[in-house]
Amino acid sequence: SAAAGAERPQVVSHVQQALSYTVFDCKWVPRSARLLCLGSAARGTGLIQLYELRGARLQLLREIEKPKPIKCGTFGATSLQQRYLATGDFDGNLNIWNLEAPEIPVYSVKGHKEIINSIDGVGGLGIGEGAPEIVTGSRDGTVKVWDPRQNDTPVANMEPVQGESKRDCWTVAFGNAYNQEERVVCAGYDNGDIKLFDLKTMSLRWETNIKNGVCSVEFDRKDINMNKLVATSLEGKFHVFDMRTQHPTKGFASVSEKAQKSTIWQVRHLPQNRDVFMTSGGSGSLHLWKYEYPAQRSKKDSEGSEMGVAGSLSLLQNVTLSTQPISSLDWSPDKKGLCVCGAFDQTVRVLIVTKLNKI
Amino acid sequence: MPVWLREHRWRQTLTAVFLSLPLRGARATPANIFCSEQYLKVSIPPFLFEAILYAPIDDTNSTAKIGNGNIFFTLYKKEPAMWDSLTLANADKEKLQYLREHAVLKAHEKAKEETEAKKITKQEHKKYALEATMKLEEEERKRIEDLKEKERQKVAKELELWKNQQKYGDKYKSIQKKGELHQEIEPLKERKSEKMNKTRIPNEGTSKTRLKSTEGCHDSCSIFSQNLKEEQLPAPRAAATIKVNFTPRVFPTALRESRVAEEEEWLHKQAEARRIINSDLSELEDLKEEEKNPDWLKDKGNKMFAMGDYLGAVNAYNLAVRLNNKLPLLYLNRAACHLKLRNLHKAIEDSSKALELLTPPVPDNESARVKAHVRRGTAFCQLELYTEGLQDYEAALKIDPRNKNIEKDAEKIRHLIQGTMQSS
Hints:
- By secondary structure, chain A is mostly beta strands.
- Chain A is about 0% helix and about 55% strand.
- Chain A is built from no helices and 30 strands.
- In chain A, the strands form 8 sheets. In chain A, strands 1-30-29-28 form a 4-stranded antiparallel sheet, with no helix packed on it. Chain A has a 4-stranded antiparallel sheet with strand order 2-3-4-5, with no helix packed on it. Chain A has a 4-stranded antiparallel sheet with strand order 6-7-8-9, with no helix packed on it.
- By secondary structure, chain B is of the alpha+beta class.
- Among the domains of chain B are: about 5-90, Sandwich (Immunoglobulin-like); about 90-175; about 290-415, Serine Threonine Protein Phosphatase 5, Tetratricopeptide repeat, CATH 1.25.40.
- Helix content of chain B is about 60%, strand content about 10%.
- Chain B contains 12 helices and 9 strands.
- In chain B, a hairpin with a 2-residue loop joins strand 7 (about 65) and strand 8.
- The two termini of chain B are about 110 Å apart.
- Chains A and B meet through strand 13, strand 16 and strand 17 of A and helix 1, helix 3 and strand 9 of B.
- Strand 13 (about 155-160) of chain A pairs parallel with strand 9 of chain B.
- Chain A: It holds the Pfam family WD40.
- Chain A: Keywords: Apoptosis, Cytoplasm, Repeat, WD repeat.
């Protein structure tokens, strides 16, 4: 049911900061009002900028330059005390930085032969259980899982079969990390493939193809029994999979939505409410969605196997902020509704989404 | 010749002149009255009253009242003075004329001025209306802006509050942490030695080094707490590889639904091209360069046909078709050969194939289509399938109605059909 006009969440633009470089990823520093922008400077070097939100503006605290442009970053595998940043760069290097002493990385490996498109971390920030791990997905067609305690070699490698021509891996995400043993990695590729790898059994658990290159995948929560997975793609579509019931042949039930004509670059779930998520688009717009569960989440098919039932989606709000794609998006884990987004118009914007309590 | 009205009566005060003009039955309207500063005229054809006034009057404010067969003028004098008479006594013709013209001119000017004034007032009214609406809209906009601004400020304040809480919280936490840890160092050291035996981490070496570091630990508390946590973590995963298969895709670009149709077509064309090149590669390798050119082969075929070597021509056309099966003329010419060779079914086949390839039917391929129909028609007739043959001849006539030969042949076939119908 659609929320009444006056009660709908509003997306308020709080601060806008023009940057002198292309920003590829932006992340809140946990437990703070600080955020990071990661990107590529005009002269082909990488940049990490640390900003603090002060009143109605962003104050630049630090600027760190690195030899290669940086594509993505995560705090997912670091402890709350350390808050080390893991980054993937255009050359395939995975680095973990102590932002207080960023000259030498705490961990470094040339993980891939080509650009690392996407990175995720799990087991850090006091969330969930199990060893902190980082997963990277690259243009070289492989997905690798790293343990910061083990140098040089990944603890899991999902690579193409011998002789198979590779596809670009565009996005990776951890999920199902509800105890020390369980963990899955979901990867999306440019040919529309989505693959779910089970790290406990080291096998492929599920795969499907959504007919359009997969730009972004995310579980609604990493640290619970896998509940929902959102996958966004080219051509303005995204799919929400119900991950609680896997049918032997049909896989997971899903509902899909075509929100806009252009690519949906990112999906991010609200940390404080796992049924609310935001998608960012190639047309510079943001859409805020709510997933409604069906009356019964699973049912039996004609042969008696359990199959999932997909729910429905409602659009809570949408706003256009830019003429260029909004390629990165991050919710603050500490303040509900606070989010940052980076767009290809070289601007980073801090937004506040109001009235999320009323959903 | 106008009839002058002269029976007027007048009286005056210092400031005004009152003139009464009987109309002798004529009906007056305001249009009949013309008045300027010093000239007054009432013209109700055929009646005419004209007066050059003694002194100028204020013609804008003066009035004329029409009623009771009478016009009653109230003329306000420009200068208060008593007039000797209503009209100027010694008004000569020239002066009269001049005054008349002057009066008319003046009236015109006045009329113009009035329209100008009207226009100006109209514009001003419009402007006023516009400004009023703009103001209203502006107010509305401002109201919305204010609402938004209030929302923004509220949210910003909450943010500041939260931020300060964070800062305070952080400081508090770090102080607390330091205190706690300093207190706990001693008992924890003991606990650690216990844990050594129970630890899940199999690597003896690393835990030993950790112990060493804890004994020497007075500095960063974070390393200490980190070590503590590490002990509770499982070991790094045993490295393994999962082999992956991808949904096949020929193109290196990303998959987009909207491009799938284009891509399929492109692939199809590529496959076609490859097929031609690859077919019977071994045989074709023996051919000379020129023999691999369908057009050259077609010309060869045509020459052989002209010389009567029908079998040779067919061979040439066959080879050409193997190289390129989309040229209609090859089939057309081969059909002609088959006709000569009395391979009637083959002639029909080839003519049909030629017609198929000659779509769409345009003026450019008219002659080819005519030939195809004629050849097929001929073949049908020779097989005694006269109805089908006639169909083709008629189709040929449709394309080229002026061809006498085709017409003659069509007639012949019709007779033949009628003949057989009659006899059967």
